[in-house]
Amino acid sequence: MKKLCAIVLTGLMICGIAFAGGGGDTTGVVMNKDKPLVFFNRQPSDPTTGAIDMTSMNWNDKTYYVGFDAAGGGAVQGKLITDYLATRDASIDRNRDGTIGYVLCIGDVGHNDSKARTEGIRKALGTWNGSTDPGRAKEGSVTIGGRAYKVVELEGKAMTGTDGSTWNANAATEAMGGWATKFGNQIDLVVSNNDGMAMGCLQASNYPAGVPIFGYDANADAIEAIGAGKLTGTVSQNVDAQATATLQVLRNLLDGLTGADVYTKGITVPDQYGNKISAPIEYRASEKALLAQNSGVNASNWRDYTAGTRDAGIKKSTAAAKRVLLTIYNSADNFLSSSYVPALNYYAPLLNINLTIVQGDGQNESSTLDKFTNLNNYDGYAINMVKTNSGRDYTDKLRY
Predict the structure, then answer these.
(1) Does 4 have pLDDT greater than 60?
(2) Fewer CB within 10 A of the terminal residue: the chain, N end or C end?
(3) pLDDT in tens, 283-321
(4) CATH 3.40.50.2300, the chain: domain bounds
């Protein structure tokens, strides 16, 4: 009889069944396919059309996405730029030709966030031509000191490193050096899809002094650069709200919450432990997505975004400890490594979530996927993919 029980238990484990409650609760078993799954930062979607991959989002009733309002963020960045220009005078037109020329660092032409930021920038400057592809901008216009100026995108370029990684700061440094040589004083403005590439541009030895430059992410070094007068502005996507929401959704699901409680408790209303995220977060039911809202950062308010500020609304939880496996698409990604991961590591212990973080190279899905292993040992999963259309590669591993 004992031998039979051992055989049955072994068979259950081979079939992908794990004891629930990696923190010690062994009152039941949960198959991997039925465990909580949160995609974050890189929304499952078609890299060409941007259509949300609802097959991955409907993997089970415990699957959600946590990110930020990408379209709204693009609009915030665009307004940050035009508000800045409206307060300038004719001296911003460096060669006095009546045209504001700008260069654009594009993160990844196949990434929804990059698409949204490029669109927001071009719409604000009037250069939107219905496409986020490099080289597809039209002539626009902007008001500076009460006078209308033409706007021309001198060049937009996807910043891809020699190793194939996207959003690459070194590629931005090289591109900026080439642009400064090629366009000279035609460059009146530099815009980037993220802070890492913006800071990369500033590293170019021939960066034109005094030319305004805008980034996106509100990374610690970018905030310091704004304070020092080097970077003109950036956009905060409220990384602490995103990181906490990623963990809070998992916490709610692991605690057995269902329905609206999953995406409201601890997020827009206090949870049973008294926690509530302070920054605004919107739930988009059609995408099963929780989206943090964005805010512009410039010389007038940069001190409010200095490093080390954490959400006081999140305190120590008395929930049972649970284990979560979390993937990061690229260990070298500036935003994730300097902002998102530290936030995760700060809030996870408060929510009694034991995180195991594995990181990829930003180029090959296998660099992350091959570390998405030992799945039976975890109570839930958080996934940040290399490619946005790779959701199925991960859910397939949870079938067994």
Answers:
(1) no
(2) N
(3) 999 999 999 999 999 999 999 888 667 899 999 999 999
(4) 88-216
- Residue 375 three-state SS: helix
Burial tier of 210 (Cβ tally within 10 Å: 0-12, 13-18, 19+): exposed
3-state SS string over 261-297?
A: HHHHECCCECCCCCCCCCCCEEEEHHHCEEEECCEEE
CB-neighbour burial class of residue 111 (10 A; exposed 0-12, middle 13-18, buried 19+) = buried
In this structure, are residues 226 and 200 in contact, taking their beta carbons and an 8 Å threshold? no
Token pair for residue 147? 């006078």
Closest C-alpha among 77, 87, 176, 173 to residue 118: 77
Task: Give me the pLDDT at residue 123, please.
Answer: 97
| φ/ψ of residue 259, rounded to 5 | 60, -145
pLDDT digits (tens, 9 = 90+) for 58-115: 999 999 999 988 888 999 999 999 999 999 999 999 999 999 999 999 999 888 889 9
Handedness of CA 218, 381, 20, 245 (dihedral sign): positive
The position carrying tokens 């610690």 is 220
pLDDT tens figures, 181-201:
999 999 999 999 999 999 999
Task: Give the other-Cβ count within 10 Å of 110's Cβ.
Answer: 18
Predicted pLDDT at 187: 98
Give CA separation, 152 vs 122, 134, 137, 138, 210, in Å.
10, 13, 8, 7, 19
pTM as predicted: 0.74
Which tokens is 82 given?
Answer: 């035009």
Given a contact cutoff of 8 angstroms between Cβ atoms, the answer to whether 134 and 175 are in contact is no
Assigned CATH for 88-216? 3.40.50.2300
79 φ/ψ angles, rounded to the nearest 5 degrees: -70, -35
> Which two tokens mark 384?
């940040």
Q: What is the DSSP letter of 336?
A: I
